[in-house]
Amino acid sequence: MKHILVVCGAGASSTFLAHRMRKVVLARGLEVTVKAASQVGLDQRLPEFDVLLVGPHLAADFDELELLAARFGVDAALLPETVFDGGGDRVALDLALTLLIPTQPKELS
């Protein structure tokens, strides 16, 4: 089971997005959990997760959050500005899955 954490400033928008992402996870039959959090106490929560998705409104803090996540071996990605639009839940999940399932290098012919 893989674990995704969606973070935003206060935790409200990430909660809505995580809820919508969980519906997509169920529809796709994936073994993935999606939770939401605010930035407060993030360093205490990160060890439980495999991927950190950062809300677009935290773009100015992304480098710092990415470094924090890396300290715990957690991959991080900045969500696009359109993530709260229709279909943003699928975009966010697909972004997280690209971090969870690294692509295989292509063999040279």
Walk me through the structure.
The chain has 109 residues and is α/β, with parallel strands linked by helices. It has one domain (2-100): Response regulator (Rossmann fold, 3-Layer(aba) Sandwich), CATH 3.40.50. Helix content is 40%, strand content 20%. It has four helices and four strands, in the order βαβαβαβα. It has helices at 12-28, 42-45, 62-71, 88-100; strands spanning 2-8, 32-38, 51-54, 75-78. A four-stranded parallel sheet has the order 2-1-3-4, sandwiched between helices. The longest helix is centred in the N-terminal third of the chain and has 17 residues, at 12-28. The chain is globular.
- Morphology call: globular
Instruction: Look up the CATH topology.
Output: Rossmann fold
Uncertain spans: none
- Chain-averaged pLDDT: 90
CATH superfamily: Response regulator
Task: Please give the structural blueprint.
Layout: E1 2-8, H1 12-28, E2 32-38, H2 42-45, E3 51-54, H3 62-71, E4 75-78, H4 88-100
Parallel strand pairs: 1-2, 1-3, 3-4
Helix pairs in contact: 1-4
Tell me briefly what this model is.
Strand 3, helix 3 and strand 4 form a beta-alpha-beta unit. With 109 residues, this protein is of the alpha/beta class. The longest helix is centred in the first third of the chain and has 17 residues, at 12-28.
